[in-house]
Input
Amino acid sequence: MIRTINDAYLDLRAEFRKKGIAGYQVEARELVAFALNLEPEELDGKRGQYIFDKDEERIEQLKERRYSGIPLQHITGRWEFYGLPMEVTADTLIPRPDTEKLAEVGIGLLKDRSKGRVLDLCCGTGCVGIAVLSNVSEGISGVFADLSEPALEVARRNLIRNHLTARGVTVLADARQKAASVLGKFHLIVCNPPYIPTEEIAGLDAEVQIEPHMALDGGADGLSFYRWVCKNYNGVLTRGGALAFEVGLGQYEQVMEIMEKNGFDFVQFACDLAGVERVVWGLWDPPAV
Output
């Protein structure tokens, strides 16, 4: 039986839907494209092309890996964030649509600046900082900081992938410790920290538990990193500089309180597309000496 790329895509889409895979359309498209060594955006123009037995076997192998519980992003090693291509590995969190709100807020806070510096703290893949740099003035540069060297290697490759090596550098840094003065000053810090309460991690979906626990574990109440970052990194913000966090479901009021207690002013929140209070941000306004 002669089959086309479109036949393979439609069949896989229907199978993924029956299996209850969220985002089955996107996942089927990404998996078929990866199996055929195509970029996802190439697929539409080639759907009428015939596929061969080796292609069918490759799709079947990848499909079985997906059914074993491996996230699609770890199978393909790639994903899109804020319209930009990102490498993803088992050493990093998978960039999620919810987090695009943090990038959007960061872009808005820097949109009127021609020069400046942004710190992506707990950067993982670097997706948030890369999205910010890609949508603001070329006079703005970035530092990407994480405690995981493997994650920083991914962030470096994503800077290369998005043609930002001249504007972004990576640094090994621990958000739980006082920020090193050699980092300099920043006009914006964006941070998507670990925020899952420790005891809740064991109850997460199996696919989430595959991701690095150090990027998930936010301490007993899920708020430990917000306290550490507000205390340890306010000193590297310029006066009037902004700190913006992604927060977990129902955490926004507590994070707002933590920021206010640590000297941040004009603290507010922003909702994601689902209406969830997803980002909390404020301006650094240290007391007069």
